[in-house]
Amino acid sequence: MIGKIRQKLISREPILSQKSLVLICPICDRLIPESQKDAHHLVPKSKGGKITEYLHRICHCQIHALFTETELAVQLNTAAALQEHPEMQRFIQWIKTKPNDFYEKSRKSARLKES
C-alpha cells in the first residue's frame, strides 16, 4: 500500500516532466524557447475552435498578420495547410535563418489592411 504523500509525488511526476519537454514549432520546425512559446487556436475561438498548438511567438503573429479568422477557420486550420501557403513558405524560409529566440514585430498584410 502506498502512502498519501508518495501517491501525490507519483501523480505530480508527469506534470513536472512536461515542463522540461522540448517543443518544436509545427510551422518552422525549430525549437521553441520558453520565452517565445505562444498557444495558437487552429480554428479561432471566435469561430468555435478549441484545439491549440504551441508555436513560436513570431510564427503566431505572422499567421494573424497574413490571414483573416475566416480563412484560418475554413482553409488554414492545420499546421500543414499553413506551411503550404506561399506567403508562409516565404516567411518560413526567412525565419529558419534566425536564432530560436528571435522576435520581431509582424506587420499586417496590405490585403488585410484594405478589408
Describe the structure.
GO terms for molecular function: hydrolase activity. Keywords: Hydrolase. This is Alpha/beta hydrolase. InterPro entries: HNH_nuc (IPR003615). It comes from Polynucleobacter asymbioticus. This protein is mainly α and 115 residues long. It has one domain (23-114). Helix content is 46%, strand content 9%. It contains 6 helices and 2 strands; from the N terminus they run αββααααα. It has helices at residues 4-19, 57-66, 69-74, 79-84, 86-95, 110-114, and strands at residues 37-41, 52-56. It has a two-stranded antiparallel ribbon with strand order 1-2. α2 packs antiparallel against α5 (86-95). It is globular, with a radius of gyration of 18 Å. Mean pLDDT is 84; it is low at 13-17.
